[in-house]
Design a protein that fits this description.
This protein is α+β, with helices and mostly antiparallel strands and 86 residues long. Helix content is 40%, strand content 16%. It has a three-stranded antiparallel β-sheet with strand order 1-2-3. A hairpin with a 6-residue loop joins strand 2 and strand 3. Helix 2 packs across helix 3. The longest helix is centred in the C-terminal third of the chain and has 17 residues.
Length: 86
């Protein structure tokens, strides 16, 4: 899988470590917890899932790298279903 990109038109607001997302053309606000917000912030259009996991690994040293990557991949798949990332 290549680089993960945020979909165009997604408005983001960070408040108290949470990310509030609103996709263009929708009225449903998506709220990401602090962990989800960290992943969202790492999605820059250049990083792959593997690179995002590598970037965040030091913050989650109690989680095995393979498990962290798997969790990030599943989280991004959920965001993809909501048309928030491509």
């Amino acid at each position: 899988m290549g680089a993960v990109r945020r979909s165009e038109g997604v408005v983001t607001q960070l408040v108290d470590g949470k990310a509030f997302l609103l996709a263009s053309g929708t009225t449903e606000m998506i709220v990401l917890n602090p962990v989800g917000a960290k992943v969202w912030e790492a999605v820059d259009g250049e990083r792959t899932v593997e690179a995002i996991a590598g970037l965040l690994a030091p913050e989650f040293d109690e989680v095995q790298p393979a498990e962290l990557e798997r969790d990030i991949r599943a989280f991004l798949a959920d965001l993809r279903k909501l048309n928030l990332v491509t």
